[in-house]
Please model this.
Amino acid sequence: MKSGRLHVLLFLLQAAACLQASAQRNPQNLITGNFHDLNIEQFAEELESQTSYYFYYDSSLFDSLKINLYVEKEPLSRVLELAFAKTDYHFAIDRHQQVFLTRGATVETNLSEALPDNGMPKQPDPSYADIDNGEGRNKGIQHATLENKLYAIGENSRNNGQPGAVIGGYIRDGKTGEPVVGASVYIDNPRIGVSSDQYGYYTISLPRGRHVLNIQSIGMKDTRRHILLAGDGKLNIDMQGQVMMLKNVIISAQKLSNVKGMQMGVQKLDIKTIRQVPVVFGEADLLRVVLTLPGVKSVGEASTGLNVRGGAADQNLILFNEATIFNPSHFFGLFSAFNPEVVKDVQLYKSSIPARYGGRLSSVIDISSREGNKKNITGLAGIGLLTTRLDVEGPLIKDKSSFILGGRTTYANWLLNLLPAQYKNSKASFYDLNLNITHQINKNNSLYLMGYTSSDHFNLNSDTTYSYSNANFSVKWKHIFNDQFYGVFSTGYDRYQYNISSEANPLDAYKLMFDINQKYLKAHFSYYLSASHALEFGLNTINYKLDPGSYQPLGKQSLVTPDVVSAERAEESALYLSDRYSISSRFSIEAGLRYSLFNYLGPQTVNQYAPGLPKTTDNIIGTQSYGKGDFIKNYSGPEYRASIKYEISDSFSIKAGFNTQRQYIHVLSNTTAIAPTDIWKLSDPNIRPQAGGQVSLGLYKNFKSNTIETSIEVYYKKIQDYLDYKSGAVLVMNHHVETDVVNTRGKAYGVELLIKKNSGKLNGWISYTYSRTLLQLDDPTSGETINGGKYYPANYDQPHSATAIVNYRVNHRFSVSMNATYSTGRPITLPIGVFYYDNAFRTLYADRNAYRIPDYFRTDLSMNIEGNHKVHQLTHNSWTVGVYNVTGRRNPYSVYYISENGAVNGYKLSIFGSAIPYVNYNIRF
Amino acid sequence: MKSIHWLLLVLVLGGCKDKYNAPIHIPATGYLVVEGFINAGSGSTNITLSRATGLDSPYVIPEYHAQVSVESGDGNSYPLTELANGQYSVSQVPVDVNQKYRLRIKTTLGKEYLSDLSPVQTTPEIDSVSWIAGNDGVWIYVSTHGSQTDSRYYQWQFDETWIYHASHLSPYVYQDYGMLILRPDPFEVYTCWSSDQSTNISIASSAKLSLNVIPSFPLTFVPYSASDKLISRYSILVKQEALTQDWYEWKQKIQKNTEQLGSIFDAQPSEITGNIHNTTDPGEPVIGFVGCTTETVKRIFIDRGQLPFVPIYDPYADCIKLDTIKNDPDSIAAFFAGGYNLVVDAVSHGTAITGYSGLAIGCMDCRALGGTTTKPDFWQ
Model:
């Protein structure tokens, strides 16, 4: 940062040219030492360590200087006089204890009046013209836009005897006014750094005095602000975005977070990264990219169900701006339901899950959307093979509020029309819509509104129609109480529903419906006590209402008997407190406690089973009815979240974590892939909540000034009461579903290696994971055991997997990306033999998941071609051209045996049987 | 429906299913397989015993010389006699609808198996067997209804029979020494009947309907282009049985395990436990579910003339290029001896027979395609 000091120096040279120089004496800052052959850096460091002075100089001017000196209890000015005697070097000391070292000429500093020896100016000095002391003009918040300006913050009189002061403020994109999330804000000496939160807000506690505040973020030019910190205050900072097309490709905000961050098992992907990874049909797909991260798997290409560190697909909390998304997929699970144009980034927590999240065992996938442009109306239109997109954003009130509206729809029907005649009437369609409104009421209050809906609809030859949809709405209010304390209050409504209908035969035409609704209220507080101590606490509550199934006649002729599985209601509440404390600059701990409480509510009629016997309809000994609002069953328990970090050096740290979770809502499924027709079930008196715990340990080492990150994480995890199904279970329209499911336990362990290069022409990551996931059902009271009560591999147990994602930027307008993935084939249940029955050979099954399908390997390529880069043209356009599965390898999705015309035939099923080329065109306006 | 989804995706996405056999060898389990039901009606009770085999060796291994008997809940026993190939039969069990029945099996290994006692189900008559001619073939449907108190679970099996004719009449037969003599009946090997049996499990339930009716359950599809079943006249005999709920669910599991796989959202194959157990080792797997029910049947015929004018697969489409053989014993012997070819007609010049036209026996003798020349009793 020496060159940074030079900037200040030059700036002050101009600014203070009329002032008179005079070195001051300071009896308290006496220097003792035997300096032998020191260069200027070593010398300045030594002096800085012995005094409270700061040195500014351009080291290149001093490269020929060697200092040899012996002094004992000499004031600084005397020491410098001696050191620079008979040289061309000069020094000047100002009243802020700043020392300017120059060659040739002396810096003039403003010291014409008598000042207290060791203090700040008591009030702003008008002659200090270019130090922008916000206190003077605009009581309160400062908007710092210039790099080379010195911003004075706080009034000295507010000094309550504390050595440090706290600055807070928003970091925004200077062009669009959008908050910059996850920006690193730090000073170099001493090393203190924080990140801005999801609203772009940061709080940092620094020693009083002069600092250079560095700000870095993804996709933004690194910037810095010179501050003179006298007391607590506010400083808003605008960052300049790099022109979209010229963007320095990957994440630079994470430079520090990997080693320095408290959390482990956290991965953040911004939309730029997501967009580079080649995917099928070229639809930038967030969940598909998450799948390339170590520790994340799925059962196959047709599923967006994620299995994080051995967890089931329903054990992920998928949050989209606070809203829970129950089914994040489109088109049979081939795409995720998030519009890439609206998404800003996604954060995956797979190990240390912050205490503010809860309700799922395995992971939290927190997706945040962008805020609209606060300055101008802009937009984007895109066209691909299967979908078309349109996004518009802009200010509602300039600089205060903005909106972003995005929509996607498909026209996949043309593909279906290529099918043989018998599928001529098939239709498949989906759409999703996003609307976000952000309003800044005043400096301490901001309001965020979000609406989201996604819908899928498909029917095959007018026979059975399937549709499902998500609908989410949330309102969030952020209030800043003071620089150290803020709160976020949110409320919202989430809904997921599906229905299946068939009109093939009017006499048994039916409609089957399922829905889940939740209303929630969350209050989250963040209290920043000091740079080394911060608290987060809050409470939240979710009110559930599920309609587990309704089977209704369709049409007048239908003979279908209406059947409704009675609605389920419950309340899930949690209270949490998390404390981050740095014992030293290298050693930090974070401990959190979340206490969750689940109440299963009436009205409901609950089956009672004979204790100690399997839950079967034969063992029902009675039923109990409960009235509206009755507390039928309460479950509660603490969840512990703890992590420690020790930094062995600036680029090397070790972290450990311990986490426990509880989950009160479950997906009931007996399919391998998570299906759109799976139903969710609340815990009730007969179905216990799931509980899980994980211990993990990680080593993080960065190389080449943090441009190469490496990490090794190991984990061991236990899952209790995971809901599995019995053989031949009926899960839909079952009035006593507890008889068809069983509580199993699981264990998972693994090691994850990641090497990531974040910047440069060539960037990307390589990951390798070894992991196992084993389940066990040996409870004799469940009525049956699986594989004789022994541990058996879960559907998604793929011991070895490796992924490489490589991007190469040939020039500013052309880049190439490659994605290669390998994994062990997933386990399947193969027939152990055949028997002849009903005029056909038929297969016989025994042990679950005893075999594996062949290994999986796929390579994808894509090219991004940008139009020209004139900033001020009306539209910018870009092309993405790529090939999914370049090698055309027929990766098996499953292997199965089926009886056809009396004989048993084995098949290997591949979702993508060849290389799939795609092209996408985007236009930005 | 699920397999249809899959097909759709295959086509849309360029996906594919390839024949595949997992490179594993699992030794045959040899589990006992018991097929059949106790006929509570006037027909015979037929039970077939066999053994499960390895996946890579699908052969029927009949279970011979077992002692099989039907037992009633009140202690009566009716032994079955062994027929060929592991089949056991008794002509009629005098069933009392208020009793429950079970099957007892003693194998030559000395093991004894017993099915659970089953209540007697009464199967309603089949209301109709109907058909609809589509663009690619004929869908055949079955409809039935029962009383509200009867079983609401049904299964069907069917036997198909169809008539077809060889490409030409066969007026001559070959005698030794290059001699041809007139066939007493030129139609002898011209008309055949072939038959086929259902190989898929067809089950349906009215449990979700307000009335105990099965309206038009699609039983089978007879394609125009892939078989000659509809080439002239076709008949289908539909057999219907009412099942108990357990029995139905057991069949449904087998159906899911063995016929409804291959989609993206496949249910995991499951272990199937029937209602037959080893009396001393209840843990021994036995495949089968023996219930007690009656059977009702219905037969329909479909004539080619009732179908739209569509091309139907003709196995004799290539039987048009006749060979001509000179009328001398050597030539006749060379062509017709050995029975690979038959005479279509004599070729005459004036009154003299100068030669014979001939065709492969596959074209001339309808039995070569697997049919029988014996007219079935029911054929009209």
Summary: DSSP finds eight helices and 58 strands in chain A. The helical segments of chain A are 2-15, 40-50, 76-84, 134-137, 257-260, 271-276, 286-290, 413-416.
